[in-house]
Please model this.
Amino acid sequence: MRFQEKSRLAVQLATLAGSERQQLKKRAELARDVILRDTRRAPSVDEMMLQLLDSARVAAEDAAETVARYTGQVIGLSRRHATVQCDGEELTAPLSSALAQQAKSAIALGDLVRLDGDPLQVKTVLPRRTRLSRPDPGSPHIERVLAANIDIVGLVTSLARPAMRPHLLERALLAIEHGGATPLIVATKVDLLTPEERVREIGRLDAYQAQGIRVIPCSSSTGEGLPALRAALAGCICVLVGHSGVGKSSLLNGLDATLALRTGELHHGSGQGRHTTTGSCLYRLDGDIRLIDTPGVRAFGVWKMTAEEIRAYFSEFVEWADGCAFGNCRHTHEPRCAVKGAVETGDISPARYAHYLRLLREDEDE
Model:
């Protein structure tokens, strides 16, 4: 036995208790006796002990690598546990203490995660390609991630009751663009409108269609627009967001009746919706649609956007901005501002410009 091997054996034996060393020696002697039955030459007992220790180390490393290779997507989430889809298998495991302490910002439905340890824990969240997030309503300095790695965000707005909230729409669209997903406006309850009301209410969304944002009017009651919605979401990971009462759960039931989600009536008098989704869930629907439903939101803040990023969102300003007298024009109070001139002539929607000013003010206040 070479000197290096003797030294390595001595180091490894030093980590074992006395009883473990005795058991290892007995196993080595037995293994050596088996070899001697077939050949006159066999490793020494010390050499057999080193081989057994090396085999145990390799087996432990392989087991650790196997555990670490559990990587999947979060499809269910509670305060301390996550359900993860891994190669067609669903695993439910506790969050690591670090993730559990900051769960709403550190992990979200749609996240790709790595499970490690024995027993398994969700310990690592892999980099996100997209996200939908907003400031936490109770702690605005904390980012609350609503969904991650999503392709499409379906922004659900009602054409009837509760009434459309344009500023909520603008803020949500801004957050969607900031997070990298594709926006889709889903205009519900179209069946409750007269023909004249239908033209008027859908017309309020023309400015968004002019920006290239698709608008799908639909009705969960009659099924109008649902085939177009299914086609738009096919093969994608999507999330539905919107004000309480706009009909998100009814939409999901319309897309897949087997879900049988609870829906809510409007509060009498106020026209406001009741929360019927109390937690986020990821549903798998026909057509390879993976869809996240979220609780209704009453407000939608935008997480850490600069004034320049807000301005870039209003793409209709671009063709007019070159005509401004100042290269760094913010299109607010500056003289000879071509964007303000376009608002006055109706080339830029006055309502959209008002949203822009309001978003800037809110950004300055934060």
Remarks:
- The domain at 131-293 is CATH 3.40.50.300 (Rossmann fold).
